[in-house]
Each structure stands twice: as structure tokens, then as C-alpha cells.
Write a structure and sequence with these properties.
Layout: E1 2-6, E2 9-12, E3 17-24, E4 32-38, E5 45-51, E6 56-58, E7 66-71, E8 76-81, E9 90-96, E10 99-100, E11 104-109
Parallel strand pairs: 2-11
Antiparallel strand pairs: 1-3, 3-8, 4-5, 4-9, 5-6, 7-8, 9-10, 9-11
Length: about 110
């Protein structure tokens, strides 16, 4: 199982980013995929998840601002993030059944 995340960067308060994750090594769509994040000195937390049937879950801080989506044919998972704020600064990871990618850094400056 392997993930390669991309799309992170430096953005101003209120800005947007779209994260992408290409997955390989398992049957995409089986089980739940998620975007997790970890800020310095904090525990890793789930941002949003996507089930094989299209069911989604969002952490309270992500509701109304972030949208998770997937392209089964391309084995891609996405996270559209709008109205970012400095509290969103973290490393963002794809996750599936205990496996995470190397992550992509998101930094929001005020």
C-alpha cells in the first residue's frame, strides 16, 4: 500500500488549497480512506473520510470548509480546503487501514 500526497503549500488566511493523493497497492474503494493531519506538538487527527460507497465524514472543524472526494478510476483522493486559517497549518496525510503516506505540508499565514 502506498500513497503519494501533493498540493500543499503556503497560503494566506482565507485562502484555498486542493490536496491530491494517488493510491496504489490495494483495491481502491474497499474500506474507508481518510485525510488526516498532524500539527507540531499535536496528535494526528482525522480531517475527513470517504467510504467506498461515497459516504463521507468531516471533523467539526472541517465542516462547511473542506470537501473530500475520490476518483475510483484514477485511484485518487482529493481534499478541497477553503477559507483556511492558521489553525489548519499541519502536515496532511492520506490514510487507509493503518497506512499513511509521507504527507504534504499546509502552512497558513495571517
Amino acid at each position: 500500500v502506498q500513497f503519494v500526497e501533493s498540493g500543499g503549500g503556503l497560503v494566506e488566511n482565507g485562502g484555498s488549497l486542493r490536496l491530491s493523493c494517488i493510491a496504489s497497492g490495494f483495491l481502491f474503494g474497499i474500506g474507508t480512506l481518510s485525510w488526516d493531519r498532524q500539527a507540531p506538538g499535536k496528535n494526528r487527527e482525522t480531517v475527513a473520510s470517504w467510504g467506498g460507497s461515497g459516504n463521507t465524514y468531516y471533523a467539526d472543524f472541517a465542516k462547511g470548509r473542506f470537501t473530500i472526494s475520490a476518483d475510483n478510476e484514477k485511484n485518487m483522493l482529493y481534499l478541497q480546503m477553503n477559507n483556511l486559517n492558521p489553525d489548519d497549518t499541519a502536515m496532511y496525510y492520506c490514510h487507509w487501514r493503518g497506512t499513511w503516506g509521507r504527507g504534504t505540508q499546509v502552512t497558513v499565514v495571517s
